[in-house]
Specification:
The structure holds 2 protein chains of 2 kinds. By secondary structure, chain A is mainly alpha-helical. Chain A has one domain. Chain A has 9 helices and 2 strands, in the order αααββαααααα. A two-stranded antiparallel ribbon of chain A has the order 1-2. In chain A, β1 and β2 form a beta hairpin. In chain A, α4 packs across α5, α4 runs parallel beside α7 and α8 packs antiparallel against α9. The N and C termini of chain A lie far apart (48 Å). Chain B is an all-alpha fold. Chain B has a domain of 137 residues. Chain B is built from 12 helices and no strands. Chain B is globular. Classes of the chains: A mainly alpha, B mainly alpha. Chains A and B meet through α4 of A and α8, α9 and α12 of B.
Chain lengths: 269, 274
């Protein structure tokens, strides 16, 4: 079943039993073709150019989100272990490539523990929002509007992390890594944040230990990932600059964690 | 005026007629006929106007104007009831618009609200251990609408005005589950957004019960937390089983889907607890 998944990505498939409902026509074609087809249609309306041009551009930037959801239980458990305790990972950190149709492409996450996925970041983000809500409630400051603000604050934090990684790549002269890869790597930090917030809920003092610990683990994970996987694509090799940038990535996790793990109602701190 | 007189005199029969009109499954062939006023009508006044009244009456019936007081309409040729009913004249409207009034489908059927199906779906959710997915084959939004409305009402009884929040959160949760489910299922995913909202709405029933129970328990106590935990797990279990059995997803993603549903229902339970 998984072999056929990589064959023809992006073809929308109509559902076998179309239901007579008002929303049925708009949401036909679930699966990997959804985003590409939808964006292609809207892009044609907005830009007014031909559909193939817009679709090729979108596929260049968005790189088939279906790939990032080919996960199973076993992968999720092991990936969480790698993300939360990166120094225990004995194997290598590079992704496994396979030749597909004459080009080298990476294996999907089921077969490769080092491949990024989007399921864990999405779930970790959701868990972070829910745990933040519980934390607010236990301090008596819960209101649904506060939770909405926390949701947007988390999104901004995710965006900041993505831009940090993207800027690092740009400063090395290559921005060729697919955007969803970087979004996935940035989203892994929410798992550490969930652990820190959970510690804060259960016992207040454990937060002062768990927060720097998870921060450090996340920094190590990002450094190892960026070093092995993303910097492979960089053309020029400048050792000291690489190392300074990696150190900068690891150090920049601290303010991000401090900002996001401090669950309060107002925006800044 | 005569209409009102008939209504006051025959309240039960008119109520029966109204109920027949609204709920199609109560009807049988004998009760389909509208109630016709009794024979002791004061037939003195409309006699000179019968000839002018009949084309008007015929066009009025075929044009099917307002729905008020159906017991005043009669298929029998009594002119008293229809001419005393001061409906606007449809001058020049000799061709009937659409079908006649009696041939119209009942209101709830036209709206697509099948109360019997809603009730059977609700009863099937109450048992968390045996889920019957055949009932949920055709999705509808009226049951979820009722549940969300009652959830909002119970929250209102607790002093929290959460109607808009519930609407927004259900929309976001449905979008989230729709994206996650279809992406996980790959090319076989055929969950559409309508069915997703319908399933999330129906599995909101334990949350509604939780919000009703939470009115009687002290806020912030251990009891409400334990009960909320149990009800969230109930909701998650039912929702996951319905999703996996209705939309053709792989059974191997059951735990992953369950966690997504768990997050959604924990979020709604936070509204109740805090």
């Amino acid at each position: 079943m998984y072999d056929s998944l990589g064959a023809q990505p992006g073809l929308p498939r109509p559902p076998p039993n179309p239901q007579p409902n008002p929303f049925g026509n708009a949401f036909v074609g679930a699966g990997s073709g959804l985003i590409r087809g939808g964006l292609g249609a809207y892009g044609e309306k907005i830009l007014g150019s031909s559909s193939e041009y817009v679709q090729s551009n979108i596929s260049r930037y968005f790189s088939d989100p279906q790939y990032y959801f080919q996960v199973n239980d076993h992968y999720v458990r092991n990936k969480l272990k790698v993300v939360l305790f990166p120094f225990l990972h004995r194997g290598h950190w590079s992704r496994i490539t396979e030749p597909v149709g004459g080009r080298l492409s990476y294996k999907p996450p089921i077969y490769d523990i080092n491949a990024p996925d989007l399921y864990i970041p999405l779930m970790a983000f959701g868990t972070y929002v829910v745990l933040a809500g519980i934390s607010l409630g236990l301090h008596g400051k819960f209101s649904p509007e506060a939770l909405n603000w926390l949701f947007f604050k988390g999104l901004v934090g995710w965006f900041l992390q993505v831009s940090l990684l993207k800027m690092t790549l740009f400063s090395l002269g290559s921005g060729e890594a697919p955007l969803l890869d970087i979004v996935a790597y940035a989203g892994y930090t929410f798992t550490g944040m969930c652990i820190a917030v959970l510690g804060k809920i259960t016992w207040n003092y454990s937060y002062y230990f768990l927060m720097p610990w998870t921060c450090l683990c996340m920094g190590v994970f990002l450094v190892k990932t960026m070093k092995r996987v993303l910097f492979v694509e960089v053309r020029s090799y400048d050792s000291s600059r690489h190392h300074y940038l990696l150190l900068f990535i690891a150090l920049a996790q601290f303010p991000l964690f401090l900002w996001l793990c401090n669950i309060t109602v107002n925006w800044l701190f | 005026m005569t209409c009102y007189f008939y209504l006051r005199q025959n309240k039960l029969k008119s109520l029966h007629a109204l109920l027949n009109y609204l709920q199609p499954w109560r009807r049988n062939s004998t009760s389909r006929r509208w109630y016709s006023p009794p024979a002791e009508t004061p037939a003195s006044e409309p006699e000179p106007r019968t000839s002018a009244a009949s084309p008007r009456r015929r066009s009025r019936r075929s044009a099917s104007p307002t729905l008020a007081s159906p017991s005043c309409r009669s298929t029998s040729g009594s002119a008293a009831a229809s001419t005393s009913f001061s409906a606007p004249q449809f001058a020049g409207n000799t061709i009937g618009i659409g079908s006649s009034f009696e041939d119209e489908p009942p209101l709830l059927e036209e709206l697509g609200i099948n109360t019997r199906q809603i009730w059977s779906k609700t009863v099937s959710i109450i048992n968390p251990f045996r889920v019957n997915p055949d009932l949920h084959e055709d999705a509808d939004l009226s049951g979820p609408f009722l549940f969300l409305l009652s959830f909002g009402l119970f929250q209102l009884l607790a002093g929290k005005l959460h109607f808009g929040i519930i609407l927004g959160w259900v929309t976001m949760a449905a979008l989230f589950l729709y994206v996650v489910f279809n992406m996980l299922a790959g090319r076989n995913g055929n969950l559409d957004l309508y069915r997703c909202v319908s399933l999330i709405g129906y599995c909101m029933l334990p949350m509604v019960i939780l919000s009703a129970i939470a009115l009687f328990l002290p806020q912030g106590g251990v009891g409400i937390l334990v009960i909320a935990g149990v009800f969230v797990i109930w909701s998650t279990r039912v929702c996951t089983r319905l999703l996996v059995e209705l939309a053709s997803c792989g059974d191997e993603h059951r735990g992953l889907i369950a966690y997504a549903c768990f997050l959604i229902y924990t979020l709604f339970s936070l509204l109740v607890i805090f």
